Amino acid sequence: PTCLFFLALPPRNLPRAKTRPPRLSRWGKGLGESRQRAPDTHNLPLLELPSKARPFEAAMPTNGRPNMPKFHTLRVKEVRRETPECVSISFEVPEELRSEFAFLPGQHLTLKAELDGEELRRNYSICTAPQEGELRVAVKKLEGGRFSTFANERLSPGTELEVMTPSGSFHTPLSAEHRKHYVAFAAGSGITPIISILKAVLHTEPHSRFTLFYCNRTKESTIFREELEALKNRFLDRLSLYFLFTREKPGIELFHGRIDAPKLKALSEKLLDLEDVDEVFVCGPEPMIRAVRETLPALGFPERHIHFELFTSPSGPLVPQAAGPAKARPQVVAQVEVTLDGNRYDLELTSNGESLLEAGLR
Ligand SMILES: Cc1cc2nc3c(=O)[nH]c(=O)nc-3n(C[C@H](O)[C@H](O)[C@H](O)COP(=O)(O)OP(=O)(O)OC[C@H]3O[C@@H](n4cnc5c(N)ncnc54)[C@H](O)[C@@H]3O)c2cc1C
């Protein structure tokens, strides 16, 4: 059965009302970043796209209620090898379903397939920007992983899959008026929603900048490396790109090793003026998300401006817990809307009581 929960609460991550002109002085200092004159990228198309590509742009829900997600059968258009362990998959979206598959950068699709007699459902973040007019996800093969192995080894164009309309709240409202500096930390397949947001920002906000710190084992295992480098060449003045490797020595020690608390402190000291950052996006392994959520606030960056997406169930609370016994904290009551097999139920959930699942089952 389909069981979806929507918290009818105001969005957690409101943008900071701040308009600051782009500032380039500290970026890439001493690290050999290209200093050549940047082209005027404001009116360039995002990527070289076929002229018939039409955007999949979705309006931000204004009533706090996203559209009800629904499965449709879509045909796989292309399976492209991105790295030895990752393929990206694009879908043919028939004209009559285009509006249902409109998405916000950072959202994901749920794919449903029957493998060896068992129905599997897996989420995959959309790795294109809505403006590209293409619905594409990337699947990294996990050792022993059923769906990801199937996608990497057996999936071919023409196969039909059940695909749920886009969902997820890993995004922020974009506007051509913004003059923001976005920073993202990604590792491995965590790049998928981040590259969608990055491309959408560069396309939609001509006065905003984006800085990406992206960690992988090696250059070869870095998903979308060439695409990111091409974007860097195109948006020289607005995109700063830093690759970190754990199993290769990149020459500069700062770019060797995982994104953990000491690395975040070092990056903040040498490359990142947190005062100058508006919003942070983070997607990757749980320890990296924890490190960002704990270290940046400790360095003075407001926690409410950190957006995160976790691909696995957390092993404990991801939000740093306030000191003192839980009972001492004020109780919050949330209105929850549950959709189960197409039926809607409304219920109340208290922060000190049942979990979402327990309340939903009640
Ligand atoms: C919002 C969201 C977005 C996501 N986006 C992406 C994305 O863009 N790209 C991407 O690649 N992934 C993404 N994921 C992760 C994805 O949904 C899958 O979880 C992932 O592909 C693994 O699925 P699988 O069927 O291959 O692995 P599974 O078969 O579910 O196995 C997962 C892991 O558990 C191990 N395992 C399985 N069974 C057992 C067992 N009995 N005992 C011990 N270990 C076991 C496997 O070896 C494997 O390492 C996302 C997840 C979420 C929640």
Largest sheet: 6 strands, antiparallel
- List unreliable stretches of 5+ residues: 1-45, 60-65
- The end-to-end span amounts to 15 Å
Oligomer: single chain
The outline comes out as globular
Textual characterization of the structure:
The protein is of the alpha/beta class and about 350 residues long. It folds into 3 domains: about 20-50 and about 175-310, Nucleotide-binding domain of ferredoxin-NADP reductase (FNR) module (Rossmann fold, 3-Layer(aba) Sandwich), CATH 3.40.50.80; about 70-165, Translation factors (Elongation Factor Tu (Ef-tu), domain 3), CATH 2.40.30.10; about 325-360, no CATH class. The chain is about 15% helix and about 25% strand. The strands form 3 sheets. A 6-stranded antiparallel β-sheet has the order 5-4-7-2-3-6, with helices on one face. A hairpin with a 2-residue loop joins strand 13 and strand 14 (about 345-350). The longest helix has 14 residues, at about 190-205. Flavin-adenine dinucleotide (FAD) binds near residues 138, 192 and 311.
What would you say about this model in short?
The protein has 362 residues and is α/β, with parallel strands linked by helices.
Question: Which features characterize this protein?
Answer:
5-stranded parallel β-sheet, Rossmann fold, Elongation Factor Tu (Ef-tu), domain 3, 3 domains, alpha/beta, 362 residues, binds flavin-adenine dinucleotide
Chain-wise SSE layout:
Blueprint: E1 3-7, E2 71-83, E3 86-92, E4 108-115, E5 118-125, E6 135-140, H1 146-153, E7 160-164, E8 181-187, H2 191-204, E9 209-216, H3 225-234, E10 239-245, H4 261-270, E11 279-283, H5 286-298, E12 306-309, E13 333-340, E14 343-350, H6 356-361
Parallel strand pairs: 8-9, 8-11, 9-10, 11-12
Antiparallel strand pairs: 1-13, 2-3, 2-7, 3-6, 4-5, 4-7, 13-14
Flavin-adenine dinucleotide is lined by residues 108, 120, 122-125, 137-140, 142-148, 168, 189, 192, 309, 311.
